[in-house]
């Protein structure tokens, strides 16, 4: 893509009004009904047969395509033999429907085998979303799919494109999710290691490569007819047209980087919010994030090009995922002659930070309140507990209760979770640059009770893990809200850092990373009654306790479906009062 | 053992009063309290590491040892991450406590992760019992243990012995139970195959043998120090003493045969009921059965001897399980010089039938009513259903409902299960010697409603499976009752067979096999209010629908713990009536 073409794309984008996203097209909004069965299936996501958790015989699950203002109704039936299930609609704020957030032990009881739960919620805001299991490690088991919300019928996107593609990114292990849970919960902890494969829309190739002549370490050329479950979905473009590529990462672990060989990408959306467009040749995507990029098919149309996705942020041991950008009418099976784009070095954090820092809210986006009512400092540490390895926040490792918070708070049930709130901050003398002096932690299930409509600042503070000179990236995801990302910084956050907060055009997102040894400052308004998870989106980390729970205005929540609460102390309450 | 020694043992047994088992020693009866956590564990049951479902860190689960008249209280906490769990107390009739039978969807809702359910029941009758999971295929996952009920304090066993041993038999697959469930539920069905190992008290050896010089196919000698999880438990005896060996089989699939090299065994108990003692050199044990045998340590005390367990009834592909009968003070690690007892040919059904037909009730055992009120004929067939493979009874393949029958029947809930009762019999022209003319079946969840206190005859009729010239052994197990085994016969049961029923000394049991192409006649009194599973104890067969449900006198059941019913329509009923 030459620079004039890039400029052309950017000009188109700037030329449109971003306020359009706020308009609700009530006249044409619809209710979309889906009946889904969740079950295990034999599947070969990476050409190696395993077992996936699928929906209606599909892996990944069906893509939901709605318009802003529509109501989505998913009747979810659990067809597993002995396991509960829930589905979280990642990025949907569930305004007025906190019981439909799909987080086991927080917004609802897990749906038991044979039972059906109806998720009914408004998709109020156009954007690129996805859904996934939020119970145990069912995301790692393959329970996920895409949720795309188009602008309402009479609304135009603030940029032009001729066609679009969707890429849901995930990572895949050959060890099943139950064994992963056990490994992580064992003393000593057994780390699950790097994924065997990266998947693009549920498709990857293990032990072979689509680009074997370039693969290092060497791999055989994949012999695929195109009909296999693991065959790549080829993206076909027509020369000189502009395409939107929607990208979301539901990885259990991997931080990723995506590039399209020779093609420049213009980032226009992050987590369902428009951003000030900017051009890149590669982009990082952390678990829990979604993006839209535009690209123009402006390269030699006699060739095809690689789309590559590789691991970043952890020393990779997984080959790149590849698929082909195919220029019509060239043959779609013509392999690109060039080397697939090389993923930036896994630990080139400057590259990562440069990308992240370029993400700014688009013009017309809602601005953050200029002050906060409460600041919560959250120290992220890796810890030990009686020989087990845990992740903890302010030295409390989250252990979810049996009774969903939404119910226990609504009905003022004592003993459903810890009475004392978790700590507001951590010791001012904690040295984030070194392993913890005392690595011991405890488990807890306390809740940060937020005053309704108050403005909350959260400072996520990273630290050194248990081993010397190790500090990992953690992508944090907030349920029920978007937050403004006010800033990122190095080492320990201090009050002096506040002056550098971006209050002018901070991006609105539902996910944000903390970089190694760094901090990230977020602001949100606690204006959505419900109980909301806020956690590291790396599933093994959440499993090991890396999360907290916020709750606000639950007294305002009416009509919680009883089916959401037929377990634990709420189940007992319903039961004891009758018969 | 020479014949005079055998006679001596037998004389001791005959000389005692069998009525003693009915005496309840109320003065000394106790309540035994247990707190159990169920969780997955890394374990090496056969020297190959896998994942087992264990209890309190043990595999198999802890042995419960009680006295007749005691009350057992097990507070069972589900520490699994996403799966429900129940435990069935196999052989305990649960008189007055049908909600404690531990059958998911029949007697209770599965216990959800994090929740605790209290099983409280009377062990009214001395005998050799066991317990196991009864949800999905959690028995195959390793959820089982022994339950031994000694005679009450002032009561003597009707035979003498100097010491005793306990052997819980099971089979083990390297493929996890979830994948087994999926394989069996797939279209086309994928058969799970023969187990990788047989386990004695949870211990087996894969890919090596304790008796390698005799193994065929050849296997390396196991190199074990004795401290491994897979090391055999050696049984140490003193010369010339008499021992009781309690044996129970909780296999998922395998029919077994047990022998003690050179030692004669006297069978004295079957399924918690004394039998007329008889001597054998090897004995069959089907899944769901338990036995006690007596043997005298009357062989050359300078040697040790093999105890061997091998597969019968299916073409075996699993090595014998072995352990050592060790004569003190000989070294326990001295390997027997003789070849382990050879398991009778897998398809030598005459041998099997000869053993089974020798089992008669001991003198003084309760006699069956001489007539029946209702006869239910149950045809066992293998079938097809939309490409899936099923097992069906009278052409209905059991598909358990979401709401436990005990609750839905107690509260007269409509739509909890099929209104129409399942068929009382099958077509008189059905040819049991050939594959089904029409192999199609349907699923159902109807119940055989039995008149309280009526006498029920059940004729289990075997048939040819889907393939030509195949008819398998099925060990049927009844919950909530013992039944009298009135007789076994070949081919199709006819009214003329009734004259050969044994009404004089039919054994009281809770499990009985049907032999290939044969029938088995059972009689029981429907005198225990509750909902009771009656099913093939081969777990994959039950998973594929091979069972029925009996219910009787549920209107008499009071005080069902609400925790047993907080799911499905009973859960909804409790919930809807309040709030």
Automatic annotation (TrEMBL), chains A, B:
<dbReference type="InterPro" id="IPR045087">
    <property type="entry name" value="Cu-oxidase_fam"/>
</dbReference>
<keyword id="KW-0677">Repeat</keyword>
<keyword id="KW-0472">Membrane</keyword>
<protein>
    <recommendedName>
        <fullName>L-ascorbate oxidase</fullName>
        <ecNumber>1.10.3.3</ecNumber>
    </recommendedName>
</protein>
<feature type="domain" description="Plastocyanin-like">
    <location>
        <begin position="438"/>
        <end position="552"/>
    </location>
</feature>
<keyword id="KW-0186">Copper</keyword>
<dbReference type="Pfam" id="PF07731">
    <property type="entry name" value="Cu-oxidase_2"/>
</dbReference>
<feature type="domain" description="Plastocyanin-like">
    <location>
        <begin position="165"/>
        <end position="329"/>
    </location>
</feature>
<dbReference type="InterPro" id="IPR011706">
    <property type="entry name" value="Cu-oxidase_C"/>
</dbReference>
<keyword id="KW-0964">Secreted</keyword>
<dbReference type="InterPro" id="IPR011707">
    <property type="entry name" value="Cu-oxidase-like_N"/>
</dbReference>
<feature type="transmembrane region" description="Helical">
    <location>
        <begin position="7"/>
        <end position="23"/>
    </location>
</feature>
<dbReference type="Pfam" id="PF00394">
    <property type="entry name" value="Cu-oxidase"/>
</dbReference>
<comment type="similarity">
    <text>Belongs to the multicopper oxidase family.</text>
</comment>
<keyword id="KW-0479">Metal-binding</keyword>
<dbReference type="GO" id="GO:0005507">
    <property type="term" value="F:copper ion binding"/>
</dbReference>
<keyword id="KW-0812">Transmembrane</keyword>
<dbReference type="GO" id="GO:0009506">
    <property type="term" value="C:plasmodesma"/>
</dbReference>
<comment type="function">
    <text>May be involved in a redox system involving ascorbic acid.</text>
</comment>
<keyword id="KW-0325">Glycoprotein</keyword>
<dbReference type="GO" id="GO:0005576">
    <property type="term" value="C:extracellular region"/>
</dbReference>
<dbReference type="InterPro" id="IPR001117">
    <property type="entry name" value="Cu-oxidase_2nd"/>
</dbReference>
<dbReference type="GO" id="GO:0042542">
    <property type="term" value="P:response to hydrogen peroxide"/>
</dbReference>
<dbReference type="Pfam" id="PF07732">
    <property type="entry name" value="Cu-oxidase_3"/>
</dbReference>
<feature type="domain" description="Plastocyanin-like">
    <location>
        <begin position="38"/>
        <end position="151"/>
    </location>
</feature>
<dbReference type="InterPro" id="IPR017760">
    <property type="entry name" value="L-ascorbate_oxidase_pln"/>
</dbReference>
<dbReference type="GO" id="GO:0050687">
    <property type="term" value="P:negative regulation of defense response to virus"/>
</dbReference>
<dbReference type="InterPro" id="IPR008972">
    <property type="entry name" value="Cupredoxin"/>
</dbReference>
<comment type="subunit">
    <text>Dimer.</text>
</comment>
<dbReference type="InterPro" id="IPR034259">
    <property type="entry name" value="CuRO_1_AAO"/>
</dbReference>
<dbReference type="GO" id="GO:0009615">
    <property type="term" value="P:response to virus"/>
</dbReference>
<dbReference type="InterPro" id="IPR033138">
    <property type="entry name" value="Cu_oxidase_CS"/>
</dbReference>
<keyword id="KW-1133">Transmembrane helix</keyword>
<keyword id="KW-0560">Oxidoreductase</keyword>
<dbReference type="InterPro" id="IPR034267">
    <property type="entry name" value="CuRO_3_AAO"/>
</dbReference>
<keyword id="KW-1015">Disulfide bond</keyword>
<dbReference type="GO" id="GO:0008447">
    <property type="term" value="F:L-ascorbate oxidase activity"/>
</dbReference>
<dbReference type="InterPro" id="IPR002355">
    <property type="entry name" value="Cu_oxidase_Cu_BS"/>
</dbReference>
């Amino acid at each position: 893509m030459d620079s004039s073409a890039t400029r052309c794309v950017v000009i188109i984008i700037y030329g449109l009004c971003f306020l359009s996203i706020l308009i609700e097209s009530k006249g044409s909004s619809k209710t979309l009904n889906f009946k889904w069965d969740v079950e295990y299936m034999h599947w070969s996501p990476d050409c190696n047969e395993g077992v996936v958790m699928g929906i209606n015989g599909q892996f990944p699950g069906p893509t939901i395509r709605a318009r802003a203002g529509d109501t989505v109704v998913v009747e979810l039936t659990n067809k597993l033999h002995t396991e509960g299930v829930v589905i979280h609609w990642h990025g949907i704020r569930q305004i007025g429907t906190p019981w439909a957030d799909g987080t086991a032990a927080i917004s609802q009881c897990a749906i038991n085998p044979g039972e059906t739960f109806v998720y009914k919620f408004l998709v109020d805001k156009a954007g690129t979303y996805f859904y996934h299991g939020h119970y145990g490690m069912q995301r790692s088991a393959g329970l996920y799919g895409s949720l795309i919300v188009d602008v309402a019928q009479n609304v135009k996107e603030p940029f032009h494109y001729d066609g679009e593609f969707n890429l849901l990114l995930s990572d895949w292990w050959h060890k099943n999710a139950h064994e992963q849970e056990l490994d992580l919960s064992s003393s000593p902890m057994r780390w699950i290691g790097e994924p065997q494969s990266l998947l693009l829309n549920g498709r990857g190739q293990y032990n072979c490569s689509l680009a074997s002549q370039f693969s290092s370490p060497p791999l055989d050329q994949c012999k695929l007819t195109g009909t296999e479950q693991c065959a790549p979905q080829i993206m076909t473009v027509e020369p000189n047209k502009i395409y939107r590529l929607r990208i979301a990462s539901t990885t259990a672990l991997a931080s990723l980087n995506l590039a399209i060989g020779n093609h420049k990408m213009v980032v226009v959306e992050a987590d369902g919010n428009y951003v000030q467009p900017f051009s890149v040749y590669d982009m990082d995507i952390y678990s829990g994030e979604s993006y839209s990029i535009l690209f123009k098919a402006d390269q030699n149309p006699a060739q095809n090009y690689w789309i590559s996705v590789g691991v970043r942020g952890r020393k990779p041991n997984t080959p790149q995922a590849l698929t082909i950008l195919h220029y019509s009418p060239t043959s779609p099976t013509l392999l690109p002659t060039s080397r697939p784009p090389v993923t930036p070095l896994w630990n080139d954090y400057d590259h990562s930070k440069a990308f992240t820092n370029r993400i700014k809210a688009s013009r017309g986006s809602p601005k953050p309140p200029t002050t906060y009512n409460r600041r919560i400092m959250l120290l992220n540490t890796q810890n030990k507990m009686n020989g087990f390895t845990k992740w903890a926040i302010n030295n409390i490792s989250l252990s979810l209760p049996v009774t969903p918070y939404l119910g226990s708070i609504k009905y003022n049930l004592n003993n459903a979770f810890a009475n004392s709130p978790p700590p507001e901050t951590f010791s001012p003398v904690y040295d984030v640059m070194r392993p913890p002096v005392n690595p011991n932690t405890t488990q807890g299930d306390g809740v940060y009770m937020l005053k309704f409509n108050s403005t909350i600042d959260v400072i996520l503070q990273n630290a050194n893990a248990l081993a010397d000179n190790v500090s990992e990236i953690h992508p944090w995801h907030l349920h029920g809200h978007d937050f403004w990302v006010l800033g990122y910084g190095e080492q320990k956050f201090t009050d002096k850092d506040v002056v550098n907060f971006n209050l002018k055009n901070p991006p609105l997102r539902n996910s944000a990373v903390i970089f190694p040894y760094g901090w990230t400052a977020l602001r949100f308004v606690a204006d959505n009654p419900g109980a909301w998870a806020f956690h590291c989106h790396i599933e093994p980390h959440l499993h090991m306790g890396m999360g907290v729970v916020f709750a606000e205005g639950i007294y305002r929540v009416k009509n919680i479906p009883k089916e959401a609460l037929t377990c634990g102390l709420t189940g007992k309450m319903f039961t004891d009062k009758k018969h």
